[in-house]
Amino acid sequence: MSGKFTPKVPVKLEKPKDDPFTSKDLLKFDGIQSDKIYVAIKRVVFDVSKNPKAYGSGKGYHCFVGKDASRGLGKSSLSAEDNDPKISYKFDDLNEKETKVLNDWYTYFEKRYNIVGKVIDLD
């Protein structure tokens, strides 16, 4: 794998956890209802709490928090439509380019943020 996703400053990550999250549980981790900020990609939940400048309330990527944001990330979309929790986890219909973008985002997150669990109740 290319080093293009390797952080400039090394990140010490904890051992990945496999805690179960329902999509309803995940909604609470939005940086507002909880001090924790979680984003799921391909049903894997990442703790992005250490980056509130990007994912905090009112920030550019806040539309991705508290849900599986696979669709919006794959489409490089901040739109409410692509990030609606009713469909935001769906990525099986993304085209080849969008699937590559989604996989790149997954790799980016995997190298920077702790994995805290998996979403268990999506299609």
Written description of the protein model:
It contains 4 helices and 4 strands, in the order E-H-E-E-H-H-H-E. The protein is of the alpha+beta class. The protein has a single domain (17-119), classed as Flavocytochrome B2, Chain A, domain 1 (Roll), CATH 3.10.120. The chain has a 4-stranded mixed sheet with strand order 1-4-3-2. Strand 2 (38-41) and strand 3 (44-47) form a beta hairpin. It is globular, with a radius of gyration of 13 Å.
- Main sheet overview: 4 strands, mixed
Query: Number of domains in the coordinates?
Result: 1
Q: How many helices?
A: 4
- The SSE order reads EHEEHHHE
Radius of gyration: 13 Å
Would you tell me the structural class of the helices and strands? alpha+beta
CATH architecture: Roll
| Assigned CATH superfamily | Cytochrome b5-like heme/steroid binding domain
Uncertain segments are: none
According to DSSP, the number of beta strands is 4
Strand arrangement, major sheet: 1-4-3-2
Helical proportion, percent range: 10-25%
N/C terminus separation: 30 Å
CATH class: Alpha Beta
Q: Can you tell me the overall shape? A: globular
Average the pLDDT over all residues and give the rounded result. 94
Task: Examine the coordinates and then state which fold CATH places here, giving the name of the CATH topology.
Answer: Flavocytochrome B2, Chain A, domain 1
Q: What is the beta-strand fraction?
A: 5-15%
Could you list some keywords that capture this structure?
123 residues, alpha+beta, 4-stranded mixed sheet, 4 strands, heme binding, Putative progesterone binding protein
